[in-house]
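hi support,

uploading two proteins for the ticket. first:
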Amino acid sequence: MKVESTDPERKFLNIVIYSSLGAVTIMIVIAVITFLLTIESKELTMVPDMKGLDLANAVIDLQDRALFAEVQQRYSNNMADKGTVLGQDPKQGTLVKAGTRVLLKVSKGASVEKLDDYTGWGLIELENHLKSLVTSYGPLLKLNKPYIYIYNDSPPGTVLEQKPLPGTEITILTDLSIVVSKGREGSLTPVRDYSGTGWQRALQLAIADSFPFTISARTAQRGEVPGMVISQSPSTESEVPADTVRQIYITEPVEIEQGYLFGILEKELPVYPVKVPVEIKSITPGGVETSLAKLYHAGGLLTIPYIVSDGSTITISINGDEKIREVVRSLTIE
C-alpha cells in the first residue's frame, strides 16, 4: 500500500494564508455594516426657509440644525437684494440627514445700474439723495469736489450738467462731476430777514442760503435779548447781487452751561475760484468730536459762532483735509 508524504511547513503556511484572508474579509464586512448603520442612524432634520435672509443669518440658521451651507453668488435685478438669499436647494421643508449641505443662492446685487439724470436737481437735494444710496445699497456714486460753478439763468445751486451722462451703465463706485449754477450774472437776490432769530438758527439759515455771510457779536444792552440777531446789513428784504456779503450782528448768549465757552471763530481762508466744502469741528479734551458747521465757501473771511467746552480744540477742514487747528480756553484774571 502507497503512503502519501506530507510537508508540515507547507501545511502550516497554507493555514496562515487562509486565516489571514478570512480575518481581512471579516474586518471589511464589519466596516461596511458599521458604515451603513451609522448613515441610517443619522438624525433627520427639516431644511428651513432661507429666502430673504442675509447670508450670515442663513448660515447660522443652518448650523443650528446641523446642516452646512454651500454658497453660490449671482446677480439680481435689485441693488437692495445684495447679500441676501434668493433661493436654496434642497427646498424649504425637505427632510434631510444631519450634515447635509444646503446650496444658498446669494445676490451680488444688480449687475448693471443706469445713472439717473440729475440735471435740474438742487445741490443739497442731490447730496442727500446720494447719502441715502450709501445707506441702502452701499457706495454707488461719489461727487467730485470742488464743484464747477458758472453763471446761469437757473436758480443758484441748480445742477446744470453731469459727467458721466444720464443713462451711463455703472457697475462699480463711480465719480460724478457736476456743473452748478451761480445764478444769473449781475442778477439781484432778496436779503432774508434774520431779525429776532436766535444765533444758532441764524447760522443754519445763512449756511442754507449759500450766500457769503459774516456774524459778529457784542454784549446785550438794555432791552436786548442775549443770543439773538439785533441787526443786519444789507437791510431786510433789499435786493443785492448774489455775491454780496450778508453781515449779521448778534448779542452774546449769557445762559451757558458751566465749563463751556461762547465765541466766534474768525479765520481768513485762501480765496478759491469756486466754492469748496468747509467743515468746522470741535474736539473736547476727552476726545469727543462734534461738527459745528458744514458749508460751501469761496474763501476770504470765515466767521462761525460756537459754544464748546473749555479746553476744546477747533479744527477747520477744506475739501476733507484739516487746515487749521487751535485750542479754545477761558481767560482767567488773577
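and the second one:
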Amino acid sequence: MARSNVKPGTAAGVPACPLDQEVRAVVLLDQDQRIVYVNPPAQEALARMGVEEPRSLWDLPPQLQPAVQASMPGEAPSPGVRGLADGLWGVYLPIQELDPEWLRSMVEAEQMAAVGQLAATVAQEIGGPNTSIQVAVDHLLDGFGSEQEHEKRTLHQVLDQTERITRLTRQLIALADPGHPQLGPVDLHDIAQSACELLETSFVERGIECSSELREEPVLAMADRNHLLQALVNLLLNARTALQDWSGDRRVRIRSEVNTDRVYLHVEDSGPGIPQEDLSRILLPFVSTTGGTGMGLFLTRQILVEQRGGLKVSSPNEMGGATLTVYLEKATDD
C-alpha cells in the first residue's frame, strides 16, 4: 500500500486494507471514541510511551490526543477513505511525525550504544595494565622489612587506588552492557554506593555535595544489578543537570526506605524542582524541564518496569527540589 503524506502533528485516515499487513501504527475507534483495535506496530509504539492497552481516545498520550481527535470523520468522509465497518474509523498514529525530536532521539540512542561499547573496550584495556601494577606492588611489598613502614604505607595507598580503578572499570563495563535482566536479590545500598562512586568526581567538579541516609542493615530488592545501576546513574545525572545552573544550595541526597513488600530509594536534590503542571507528564518521552532530550527519565522508568518496579516523581521536597523515587519488590535473605 502506498504511504500517505501526513503533516507533522496530524493523523491520517486509514484506507480499507488488511490491517495485519500494515507496518505503520494504526488504531480503530468507534463513534464514542472507544478504541476497538490496536495493531502490533501501534502497540509497540504506545508501550514505548508508557501506555499499555488503551481503551479510549483519552488513554492515549496527551501528545497524540488532539491529532487523533481531529482525524475523526465528519458526516461526509474524505474521498478514498472509508471505515472497515459501520461506525468504526481508523487512523495512523503520527508517532514520528508528531515530534521532530523522535528521529533525533533514535539517532542519539544508537550513538549512546556506540559510546557504551567504547567505554567497555576502554575499561577492558585499562584492566590489563592495572592488574600488572597490582602484581608489581604486591611483589615490592613482600621485599620490604618492618623498618620501611613509610614505603609500605605508600605502596598500600597505590594498591588502594588500583583497587578503585578495578571497581570503576567493572562498573563501566556493567553500565555499557547491562544485558537482559536477570532478577535476583541484590543489595540496594551496594548499588547506590557504586553509582555514587562513578559520579563522585563529576559532582565535586561542579560543587555538588552528595550524601546518603541509608539504613544500617542491608536492603535487599528483587532486581538485576547492572540494570539497576544504570537506572540509578541516570537519576544522579538528572539531579546533576538540575543543579548545574542553580545558584542556590547544591546538594543531592540518597535515602532508603522499606515497607512490608517494597523497598524504596529516594534521590533528592536541592535544585529548582519541577513545576506542578509538569509533574504528571515528566515521565513521558520528549518532556524535559532542563533542556535535555526528554528521554532520560522515560528510559529509566522502562528499565525499572522491566524489573517489576517503577519510578515516582514528586516536587518540592524538604530541600526545595525534586525527589525521584525508585521502588522495587522486597527480597528476603533466602
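thanks. also noticed: Residues 1-16, 75-84, 97-108 have pLDDT under 50 and may be disordered.
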